[in-house]
Design brief:
Chain lengths: ~550, ~170, ~100
């Protein structure tokens, strides 16, 4: 956990006061909506179909139980008793009143949470691996660097009015759980041959209307230089990124139009000229930030405690354990993913009561710490294995033990037309119907790892391009239609999915997905061959044929 | 439009000279970049202060040779959301050492003051009277800064490191 | 934002003007009395593009009270009842189409 000090707290409070004044000026008419819009966006406030939406940052996905309770309280006091965890380590509240927002922000500030730059054309919440600091084999905890970047990007005097939003993600593991290849800047932490810590820097990834996989701009930037290098990228982007067309304003378009080599030369030239401007991170600076992260005092525990051996006789527990419990770097401990995808519910939603209950469980079983991942699930990062059976029972009681992590019903979905003013079509009811179709967890387990991602429009908030199966809402003559892609992936082998054919109407989507899954089951060469691998081997043809032959 | 200079509302001594307009014989002038570049030497010799209004999409390289002799540079904010001039301001101040008047012109609202001050602006053509009047209090609305810029304010990190040193020195 | 004065406005059937209320974001409809109502049944109905433009201009003038006014289609039932003219407006006026997690009242 990162502990805010007096300075961090002061800054957040100053921000709350500033926003309170801005809201006051808006409500009195001193600010027009046109003027106010930019200001509210800088504070995470959108307008949706029914109300304002309020997006709160969960930097690098780490929350304390106290913070989670504060989020629960905001949901209860200012909203309708629930929140929506997003794919970028944020939480959204859907029914907030503008007049009450300053109070909600002030409540959150008390526990060191803010909504700065969770929307708008600035540097967004810096995201990271939800298993940071606990994943076996990790180079080092990437959150130290995320925090350094969080501070550096917060209220940056030069880069708060960029051509478009700017998203940075960091991973320090072989297996990329932070989707760094679809970010404006992706950072992969590793040690070079000399044993120095640094980053492979990727740039220009992103989804939306024109999806791109990020390209490596520099294979190694030493850790001490990472801020100045990122600053150089941003300066080039701020000056040359397109401002004439909102759809071409992301850095990915600049990188694409210039070509990565030319873009890299521009950045290098800027970096060279920049010289020493106080951004070098010497050892003591990094240690200062590191020192404010605290780690649990782990006990020395057996690898296989008796409690676990006994519980293994319960097939329901075993199924959940197989599905939701992952190896921890410390012996005797586990990482537990809490699925926010119960059958029939909106993906990523949690009620305030559930948040409180998870906070309590975190206190009891996970040193008071909770994580949020980009798959819209929560995670308890330090659970002693002996506690797993108890934890499972407790989670089950509050409806949070659905054993479907990484399975076909662990769906990522954006809010879609039920909430979003930009949507073409609904996302959530499609997800809900699919979870009902695949509600049998044995079947889901048999199908194996399969990510379905749904977006209600081309903005791709639901990451449909990189879903193993992607579902994109489009509109045809006022009706909801959906394009289906298959073969996408968001991890270290990131790739965009391929369209299988013409869009299909709302009522047929679930049938089509069932057909695709059945085709896969029939075609896979062995049970271990994952859906994406089968698509890679076979191409889209056999799936397409299955779907369209009878339609 | 009120002008705020060094924290206070003042009368603007500079006259904006439009592209085709006649040059006043003396007195301080602000002229568009293209016109300035047509005859920089002639203009710089004239009696009275000279400033240039530099567009936010033009490279600073053409301006840099004259910086030492210019009294003012005005950078443009064609809209609130267009932040290119923040980069230009920092480059002028921090890289090219410009120490004359650095003026923000265009859509200049209260809510940008702190960013602009940090980027090196010292003069503001403010759109609204109420914003100009609120300048002093707005400029003080933040006391903590995370990034080092040329404005010399101590960053949070700096203050933390100082604290560490004084703590360890006191032991 | 483009001023409605400059926008080309063309409606193809009965329409209304809708927006969100500034202080709380609630969906509102422009009324014939030059005010706003949270009930679709109170909405002023326009049938020509000129009427629509006038109604939208009035609505847009109230920048303090409402955000983002726009023209949207309605369906008029036989009894004169006003119904939303498309799915988006249906969702805005009737609410979510989905089941939420149970939240205790
Ligand atoms: C009503 C709420 C929302 C609005 C208005 C909205 C708006 C947008 C827009 C306009 C884009 C496209 C940006 C571009 O391509 O330049 C976008 C992308 C994105 N949004 Fe949202 N969004 C909303 C909710 C969400 C939610 C709920 C999530 C997470 C579940 C999310 C995560 C993302 C992600 C991951 C992307 C694509 C990645 C990228 O930036 O390339 N957004 N959003
Ligand atoms: S993908 Fe489209 S519909 Fe879904 S949340 Fe993003 S903007 Fe809204």
């Amino acid at each position: 956990m990162y502990a805010y000090d007096e300075l961090d707290r002061t800054l957040i409070n100053e921000r709350v006061s500033e926003f309170r004044d801005q809201v006051k000026r808006r409500l009195s008419g001193e600010l027009t909506e046109d003027e106010f819009k930019m200001l509210r966006l800088q504070n995470g406030v959108y307008l949706q179909l029914h109300a304002y939406m309020f997006r709160v940052a969960i930097p690098y996905g780490t929350l304390s139980s106290k913070q989670l309770r504060a989020l629960a309280r905001v949901g209860r006091r200012y909203d309708r008793g629930y929140g929506h965890f997003t794919t970028r380590q944020n939480i959204q509240f859907n029914w907030i009143k503008l007049a009450e927002l300053p109070d909600a922000l002030a409540d959150l500030a008390e526990v060191g949470i803010h909504a700065m730059q969770t929307s708008g054309n600035n540097m967004r919440n810096v995201t990271s691996d939800q298993w940071a600091g606990v994943a076996p084999g990790e180079v080092e905890d990437p959150r130290i660097w995320s925090e350094i970047l969080r501070q550096h990007t917060t209220l940056h005097p030069e880069f708060s009015f960029l051509p478009r939003k700017f998203k940075i993600a960091i991973t320090a593991s072989e297996h990329d759980r932070a989707a760094i290849k679809v970010h404006d800047i992706g950072l992969r932490l590793y040690k070079n041959a000399e044993g120095e810590t640094g980053f492979e820097v990727l740039v220009g990834g992103g989804l939306g209307r024109t999806p791109f996989i990020g390209k490596t701009i520099k294979p190694f930037v030493h850790g001490r230089d990472i801020l100045s290098y990122v600053e150089a990228i941003l300066r080039v982007y701020n000056q040359y990124g397109r401002r004439d067309n909102i759809y071409k304003a992301r850095i990915k378009i600049l990188v694409h139009e210039l070509g990565i080599e030319k873009f890299a030369r521009e950045v290098d030239e800027e970096w060279r000229q920049m010289g020493d401007v106080g951004l070098t991170l010497d050892h003591s600076v990094i240690e200062e930030v590191r020192s404010r992260f605290s780690y649990p005092a782990y006990e020395k525990l057996p690898h296989m405690p008796d409690e676990l051996k006994q519980a293994a006789h319960d097939p329901l527990f075993e199924r959940w354990r197989r599905n939701s419990v992952f190896p921890h770097k410390v012996q005797g401990y586990s990482i537990v993913t809490i699925s926010l995808k119960p059958v029939g519910a909106p993906p990523g939603d949690a009620t305030s009561d559930q948040m409180d209950a998870v906070a309590d469980l975190a206190d009891r079983y996970s040193f008071g710490e909770i994580r949020v991942g980009h798959e819209q699930n929560l995670c308890l990062p330090h659970v002693a294995k002996r506690d797993l059976p108890q934890l499972w029972k407790a989670l089950d009681r509050i409806g949070l033990a659905t054993p479907n992590v990484n399975l076909v019903t662990d769906i990522i979905a954006c809010p879609g037309l039920d909430y979003c003013s930009l949507a073409n079509a609904r996302s959530i009811p499609i997800a809900q119907e699919l979870t009902r179709r695949f509600a049998n967890h044995d079947t889901a387990e048999l199908i194996g790892r399969l990510h379905i991602n749904i977006s209600g429009c081309i903005n791709a908030c639901g990451h449909h391009h990189v879903g193993h199966i992607g579902i994109l809402g489009v509109e045809k003559n006022g009706e909801e239609f959906y394009q289906i892609t298959i073969g996408g992936r968001a991890d270290e082998g990131a790739q965009m999915g391929t369209l299988i054919g013409p869009a299909i109407p709302y009522a047929e989507v679930a049938d089509v997905i069932e057909d695709i899954v059945e085709a896969y089951l029939a075609l896979r060469d062995r049970p271990e061959e994952l859906f994406v691998d089968a698509v890679k081997r076979l191409g889209v043809e056999p799936f397409k044929e299955r779907v369209y032959a009878t339609r | 439009m009120p002008l705020v200079k060094q924290g206070r509302i003042t009368t603007d001594l500079f006259v904006h000279v439009a592209d085709g307009a006649e040059l006043p014989g003396d007195g301080a002038i602000l002229i568009p970049a293209a016109r300035f570049l047509e005859d920089p030497e002639g203009l710089l010799k004239r009696a009275g202060k000279v400033g240039v209004i530099w567009p936010n999409n033009r490279d600073l390289d053409d301006l840099v040779p004259y910086l030492g002799r210019l009294d003012a540079v005005a950078l443009m904010f064609p809209s609130f959301r267009d932040g290119r001039a923040y980069s230009q301001a920092r480059l002028l101040r921090e890289r090219h050492g410009f120490d004359g008047e650095l003026r923000a012109t265009g859509q200049v609202l209260r809510d940008q003051f702190v960013f602009m001050l940090r980027a090196g602006f010292d003069t503001f053509e403010v759109k609204k009277d109420s914003d100009a009047e609120a300048f002093a209090s707005t400029a003080k609305s933040y006391s903590v800064f995370y990034q080092p810029t040329g404005d010399g304010r101590l960053t949070a990190l700096h203050r933390r490191m100082q604290l560490r040193h004084s703590e360890s020195a006191g032991q | 934002m483009t001023s409605p004065l400059q926008q080309k406005i063309k409606i193809t059937g009965p329409s209304m003007v809708t927006a969100n209320r500034t202080w709380d974001g609630v969906v509102i409809y422009r009324t014939a009395q030059q005010g706003w109502s949270a009930n679709l049944s109170d909405a002023a109905i326009v049938r020509t593009s000129d009427e629509a433009r006038t109604l939208l201009n009035e609505a847009t003038a109230d920048d303090v009270g409402a955000i983002g006014p726009y023209i949207a289609p309605v369906e008029l039932k036989d009894g004169g009842e006003i119904k939303p003219g498309n799915l988006r407006e249906h969702i805005r006026s009737e609410g979510l189409t989905i089941d939420l997690l149970p939240v205790p009242a």
